[in-house]
Every structure is written in C-alpha cells, then in structure tokens.
Amino acid sequence: MILLVFLQSKRFEIQNFKNLAFTNSLGIFSFFLILFYMGLRPVSGEYFVDMATYARQFQAYSNGEPINEERDVYFEYFTKFCTTIMSLEVYFQVLAILYLVPLYVASRRIFKEYWYYAFLMIISSLIFWNAGVNGIRNGVATSFFLLGISYSNKKIVMACFMAVAFAFHKSTLLLIAIYLFTTFYKNTKYILAFWFLSILLSLALGGFWESFFLNFGFGEDERLTGYLSTDQDDLDMAVKVGFRWDFLLYSATGVYTGWYFIFKKKFEDIYYNHLFNIYLLANATWILVIRANYSNRFAYLSWFMLGVIIIYPLLKIKFFTKQHEIVGKIILGYFLFTYLLNVILAK
To answer: What is the C-alpha to C-alpha distance for residues 117 and 331, in angstroms, rounded to an integer?
Structure first.
C-alpha cells in the first residue's frame, strides 16, 4: 500500500480526480484489512504480551469475579458488560473497532478528501501495531482523544470523546491537561524552547524526574509506578532502558517538521499550531522520564500524533512544485524508519 501510494504520487497531482478515487478506494480497503487482521488475531500472550492479561480478566468476569476497581474502573465495567453479550474473540474485535474507527473518522474530519495520506501515516507509525494488540487500552484512549480534538469546533462532542479516552486509560488525563493549557497559552516559540530544555534537564538530572513524578502523586497507580521504575530486576519484562537517542531522533522528526513549516515557511494555521504545541509538551514529558521501564508507553502519548504533525501542512497548502511526489517520499521514508526500528534493529 505504501509503494502504491508512492508510485501514484509520481503520476498525478494530489487533487487529480483519478488520484483521489484511487486513494479513497485503497483507504477503505486498508481500513477493513487492518480492522479484521488485527481484530481476528489469535488470543496469545506469546506474540501479543498483554493480550493474555486482557483474556484472563475477561474470563474472570465471565466466571462472576467482581469489578477490579484498582485499575481503570470504567474500562473494567465495559469489559464486564462485554462478557454478558459476546465471546472473547468478539471482544478483541470490538476493541480493534474502538481503536481504528476513531482514527479513521478523525482523518476524514481533519483532512477531508486527502484523509488516506494521514491515515496511512498513522498506521505506519512505530508503535501503532503494538498499541492495538498489546497496550490496548492506551491505544483506544489516544484514538478517542484524537477524535475528540478533531471536533474542536464542537466543544460538547469533544468533551464527551475526551471523557471516553480518560475512561479507557487514566494517562490521557495528561493529554487533556496539556490540551487545556495550550488552549490558553499559545506561544509555540517558548513551548519549542521547553522541548529542547527537557533534553538538557533529562541528561543533567537523570532519574530525578522518575522520582519527582512518583512523589508528585503519579505513583498511586501501581502500573504507572512500574513504568516509571528503573529497577534492574524488571528489565527482563521491559524494553531497553537508558537515554534512547534513537527514540529521541524519531520524536525530533515531528519537532523539525513543525518548526520548519511554522517558522521557516510561515504556515499560519491555528489548529496545526495547537496540535504541535500539544505534541511538544507531551513529548517533553516523556523525555524527562526517558530512562524508565516502559517509557515507550509515555512516548506513545505524543507519538500517536506524530504522523499527523508531519503530514498536516502538506495536505493543507501547496508549498512545493512537486508536492504530491514529496508527500509520497515522506510516507515511504516514515514507514522505512518504522521498519528499521521495529524489524531490522529488533532482531
């Protein structure tokens, strides 16, 4: 699909009717292919890690176990309800629907007829697959958050979707707080400066930030305590810890893109500025705790927006002579970076 879009970008202008008909058809096919490929995967903890935990909880609720109120309680009620009307396999298909449909609708709302380019960037992201089959609640929550901010012109609808996001995973409270903050504070120049400052603070103070967030009250969530911990005994269950320069480089692609279009190309778009400010602050928070176990789960609170941040200006205004070809190259390069980190370097 990536290659088809890349080749198509060399044949037609992006607004050409034949191109739009092609990308829309390919987009619908892509959506349903991934929806059922992800939703109908085998129930396995060996290949999908946390999927086994979700399956055990589903079976426990099926057997009459009371709601676990120490977790994301609204999600637990949702799971309990699902046990009364569907099988375990259907439950995972429903979760896949809740993960993908908001991304599809948000892409349609934000980018109109060019929606598939944005959707393709989202599904090509480094952590897209993992968020759908492993960190499932986190994935569903951030999808609803993105759907919510696509309704920024309809505040009540947006608030409802953000409430759903919070109900599925408490971590989105950080995103909601950042959204509210950046609604009133809009100076992108200083927020960008803070992003660079967060790198220096993380390098200089190391594990101080993990302790700070734990002492600040985040440690009340047992799972979050585990994510912030850098205990070496937990490393067999965690991703590689330390200052992840590769992940920082990945994040920096969005930072550079936003800087380039806003300050270099003088791209004036209030909605994009707001998205970029949210991305910067969410990513800066992750940088501060970059050494923690499972810091990739914090990174996801910004990475789920990365594809949109990169492609947005190019789908709104024509900056270059062969802009469609540039879009095709960016999508291909973005995917290849994901392939490099997720497949080649992961071996």
So the answer is: 8
Sign of CA dihedral 271, 174, 337, 147: negative
Q: How far apart are CA 102 and CA 29, in angstroms?
A: 17
Segment (H or E) for 205: helix 188-205
Written as six digits, the tokens of 59 are 């079976």
Question: How many CB atoms neighbour CB 45 within 10 A?
Answer: 14
Q: Are 43 and 88 in contact (CB under 8 A)?
A: yes
Percent of the chain predicted with pLDDT > 70 = 87
Torsions phi, psi of 332, nearest 5? Answer: -65, -45
> pLDDT tens, 17-76?
999 999 999 999 999 999 999 999 999 878 888 899 999 999 999 998 888 777 778 899
Helix (H) / strand (E) element for 37: namely helix 17-39
- Structure pTM? 0.89
